[in-house]
Amino acid sequence: MAIETLPNAVLPSRSGPSFGFLTATPIIAMATVCLALVILSAIFAPWLTTHDPQLLLPAMRLKPASAEYLLGTDAYGRDVLARILYGGRISLLIGLGAATISIAIGLLIGLVAGFFKWVDAILMRVMDGLMAMPSVLLAIAVVSLSGASLTTVMIAITIPEIPRVARLVRSVVLSAREEPYVEAAISLGSSMPKIMWRHLMPNTVAPLIVQGTYIAASAILTEAILSFLGAGISPETPTWGNIMAEGRGFFQVKPSLIFWPGLLLSIAILSVNLIGDAARDALDPRMKQRESGK
Amino acid sequence: MSNPVSDTVNSNPLVLQIDNLVVGVGKDGGGKKIIDGISLQVRQGETLCVVGESGSGKSVTSLATMGLLPKDSLKAVGGSIRLVGEDVLQASDRRLRHLRATTMAMIFQEPMTALNPVVPVGKQIDEVLRTHTDLDAAARKKRILDMMDQVRLPDVKRIFNSYPHRMSGGQRQRIMIAMALVLEPKLLIADEPTTALDVTTQKQILTLIRDLQKDHGTAVLFITHDMGVVAEIADRVAVMRQGRLVETGTLDGILRTPTMDYTRKLLSAVPSLVPRAPRVEVGFNPVVLEANELSKVYRERSFFGKAREVAAAQDVTLTLRKGRTLGIVGESGSGKSTVARCIVRLIDPTSGGIRLGGREIADLSRRMLQPHRKKIQIIFQDPYRSLNPRITVGESIAEGPINFGVSHKDAMAKARELLELVDLPADAVSRYPHQFSGGQRQRIAIARALALEPDVLVADEACSALDVSVQAQVLELLDSIQTRLGISLLFITHDLRVAAQICDDVAVMQHGRVVEQGPAGEVLTNPQQAYTRQLLDAAPGRGWDFANFRPVAPLEAAAAAI
């Protein structure tokens, strides 16, 4: 008997998620551009300004904006523009770092918990315990116990995010492991790590991209809160939170000390969140149906 | 094409008249034509079966008749659908809503999703009456209880206040029928109403529809893919393929003297219920697989009160010899899949033994089991979910051999060979599963299972999700592979026709136990147990030998009907 003819091989292969959603609507396109500008300005900070962000010049205290100091100087005579640009480096680094580390650890925990029933109960209760603690309080405790540095702040921000990632991955794994192709892999004698990596992990990529953007945004915000509360990285290091914390005392005299870092912080977080929403809409087919069903 | 005069069985007035219907894709219907020039007539008191494989457009035809085409994606662009003289395609939404309850009604495949889970079924039927009649509450309730009696529901007063999840699949479908017929519509559209039901329930529902039709004189448009069901219920048959009408005729005419090649092909693909001639056993065949008093018990733990135990399989003993096929047949919930999954050790049996090639594997740990995995492989029911969509076909097939130490290059070479063995081109290795049809994917799944050169292949409803012609091809393939490679097959199916054609031995399961076991020829022609007889009796179309275009010969019929 004849076999049904094969479809043409020109059909698109689904090897990975596409990033066309970054320009889906004008607002998202603008968010993409804004985020790119913030990132580029942080990377190229040494070329964009010739001032040292940590150089104290008592003679130049609280100068208004001029050709020399585009945004003026702060209470210690440091260039505000340089501090904001260099501050973006720390803030963005913490956002990226916290997202990457919490996803890596949460992915591992979620995969193991979703696949092995006997560890599931223990791991998830630990995660529940972590989630029960307010994240800022936990971060302050970690930082005050181990001293403030870029590493400890990043760890302090990462820990409360891990349970969220682990829960997400676990739920995806729990539904994916019932798929016949996973059972087929078991009967083919594939090892547990191979099944997790090859058959289960790819299902988590799309939700993790979305979750990652939210974590990055909230990490940047948490770092700013910690610095503002004085529990963050030491005050001479420029971060957006530190600049605002120091500018608070001179708010009446020079509001721009808070305005500029605050503006950049808002733009960065808003852009990341908008891109995260766009990614969710693009990667979750059910959302797409709801849009077109209107 | 159809001749409206010659193929009618009665001269009652026309209820439904579809003329040259064309349905296109898109908001304006300008895209591909899903339905291309269909003409059908259904008279009062007559059942027209529309039969076809997936993608033939039979469901779209019924939706168009109900005025339920999805507005954004499908539109009728030509022809007319006349319901008692009124063109449904021209009717307003308001008029359609009225027509849908009073003049035509529809029942669907899955009664669970068609009913509202949070409203008692009596209330749901009442809603139809409240909207479309002026009866008072007492009169409505009397009419509903009367209708429930007519669809032969037990204890109607209790059922009136029951929620859908408290009822069985058959009872839910009866509720759907009661709801559809309570306003005495002239036309009943049934879209695969028994496909999700077990054969014994299916038989009851088919009889019910027949009887109600006789009492009420309803015209029935019955959509199905199953020739057996057609033989049970149709007065006339319309065969559809890819949006076109292939042929229409009386039931007898279509089954005895089909004029079109496609109809002949479709009928030839229906497996016969008469078991095939037993294979000659050449010499002594060693036992490759044994299950001894295998049991699987699920414990439902609860915080308060005692733990509840559900035995999915109890004391199942099976023997499979080299090169033979053992079928496990039974209805849903009989435990046949549980047994299969225990044997492959996808789930751990509660007690009992599994001997594979003389070695006990029931209590081996995961690690100890590893070397035995390659001796037994499984094929699943759903070809769309049994292949990882993100991995190329070649990588999927090569996964097994690579796990057992074969180099990637050799494993891929083997994958190409295996694809040719299952009649697919070798260059399919670099494609992804979504580029293949259901039947092709099932071939790939078979190739993947064969890659480890197993002694035993377990097929868990491996053909149930496929169209009948594709099913025939896959069965043929399994047969030829068995002849060439001499492997043993454990074939799990609910379909007695398939079992009759592929199995040497058959085990019939009910409520987790094997009720009857023996050579297929004996069990399926001369069953000893009441349940086996009941199953055989319920198999739709048992009176017909479709592939030979004739009713089953009297002697065989007598044997099949016992």
What does this structure look like?
The complex is a heterodimer of chains A (294) and B (562). Chain A has 294 residues and is mainly α. Chain A contains twelve helices and no strands. Chain A has helices at 26-43, 45-48, 80-115, 117-132, 135-146, 150-158, 162-176, 180-187, 192-229, 240-247, 256-283, 285-292. In chain A, helix 1 (26-43) packs across helix 3 and helix 9 packs antiparallel against helix 11 (256-283). The longest helix of chain A is centred in the C-terminal third of the chain and has 38 residues, at 192-229. Chain A is elongated, with a radius of gyration of 24 Å. The model of chain A is unreliable at 1-16 and 289-294 (pLDDT under 50). Chain B is an alpha/beta fold. In chain B, 37% of the residues lie in helices and 25% in strands. In chain B, the strands form five sheets. Chain B has a six-stranded mixed sheet with strand order 6-7-8-3-9-10, sandwiched between helices. In chain B, helix 8 (199-216) links the parallel strand 7 and strand 8 (219-224). The longest helix of chain B is centred in the middle third of the chain and has 18 residues, at 199-216. In chain B, 48% of the residues are buried. Chain A binds chain B through residues 1, 3-4, 6-7, 9, 11, 13-15, 179-181, 183-191, 194, 198-199, 202, 292-293, and chain B through 72, 344-346, 370, 373-374, 376-378, 380-382, 385-391, 399-400, 403-404, 423-425, 428, 431-432, 434-437, 439-440, 445, 448, 451-452, 469-470, 472-473, 476.
